[in-house]
Amino acid sequence: MRTMAAIKGLGHAASLAALVLGSGVARADVHAAPHPAPPAGATAPSALPEPSAAKLAAVSSVDRHAAELAELSDRIWAYAEIALREHKSAAALADFAEKQGFKVQRGVAGMPTAFVATYGQGRPVIGVMGEFDALPGLSQKSVAEKTPLVEGAGGHGCGHNLFGAGSLGAAIAIKQQIAAGRLKGTVIFYGTPAEEDYGGKI
Prior knowledge:
Layout: H1 4-20, H2 53-64, H3 66-79, H4 87-99, E1 103-106, E2 115-121, E3 125-131, H5 160-179, E4 185-192
Parallel strand pairs: 3-4
Antiparallel strand pairs: 1-2, 2-4
């Protein structure tokens, strides 16, 4: 079930990767935000600079992985695991990172659902954080009115299913730039559990 929220989450990934990779703006229809008209009497801003090749490559990477990232987000939404119980969600993200060539260390900081995925070497070190925990009592079907899937169960009220998958998409885009020799350094994806309750990203 590819939702509009999942597509917007992927836009976050492309924007994050493009921001890290240099000046200019990412230009892809699915990622373009509407720009409000200037107030009466104000002058319109000058034309935006052309995006860099690195930014275009980052957006292209996210676009190539869009279906997989949306499916990953949907799986995490369905798992709806609350703080420090995100075993399936953490495994799904860590497994996907490994398939993309990251070295994954699981169970970091004494937390079984925390992981770190690393690619590259040296500096700069670019860190990208992804959350994936759900909130207790927010089980919800994909409808506009409150309709729990399971009464009293956890659910994603803050979009961490999107944040985890979208941020991993950004890390993958950066990793591909390093692998292609267009960027030097290391990218680290921090899989941070329990953000809502126990500060898993501290």
